[in-house]
Amino acid sequence: MNKSQMFFPTSKTKLIVMTVCTFSIYIFYWFYTNWKILKETQGSDIRPFWRTFLVPIFCYSLFKGVRECAKENNVRAEYSPVWITVGYILFSTTGILPDPFSLMTFFLPMLPLLPVQGVINSLNAKVVPGQKINDKFSGWNIAGIIFGVIIWGLLILAMTMPVPSA
């Protein structure tokens, strides 16, 4: 196995902030980047775009792959890929709930990803000592955060305004 980064090295804080502020779009970037790095480091013939597009079908294999790589490199990974997958898929379907609970679909799906990201960061730190974790917010990240805060503010305002009677 190539001794470069194994998976996407981002901080849990950045994962949380970007997921909430981009209404979970960052999760798709997270999956895509992990699949792309996996393809490059393992010489796999997977197609990162399609794995991301069909994430409910392929997320288990990514979670399992992270856990297996961690075990191969003596990095602690105490999560169950099955339960992480179940949690991710269930939390991704909260959009069918009535308002305001449907808004949970924009941030709950990242919760199962947090233990996986912790293992990814530990694994990358062991395989490539001194590698920096992506914890800085780029200009695009900041633009996404500002846009997300404005939209979240407008959503909350709209949901708290009284409905005019007919």
Description:
27% of the residues are buried. The chain is 61% helix and 0% strand. It has one domain (12-160). The chain has 166 residues and is mainly alpha-helical. The mean pLDDT is 91.
Which percent bin holds the helix content? 55-70%
Radius of gyration: 18 Å
The N- to C-terminal Cα distance equals 67 Å
Mean pLDDT: 91
The backbone outline, from C-alpha atoms, is: globular
Question: Beta fraction of the residues?
Answer: under 5%
Q: Which oligomeric state applies? A: single chain
Given as residue ranges, the uncertain stretches (5+ residues, pLDDT < 50) are none
> What structural category arises from helix and sheet content?
mainly alpha
* Number of domains as seen in the coordinates: 1
Order of helices and strands: HHHHHHH
User: Biggest sheet, in brief?
Assistant: none
Count of distinct strands: 0
How many helical stretches? Answer: 7
Quick description:
By secondary structure, the protein is mostly helical. The protein has seven helices and no strands. The protein has one domain (12-160).
Features of this protein?
about 170 residues, 7 helices, about 60% helix, globular
Helix and strand arrangement:
Elements: H1 12-21, H2 25-42, H3 48-53, H4 55-72, H5 81-92, H6 113-127, H7 139-160
Helix pairs in contact: 1-7, 4-5, 4-6
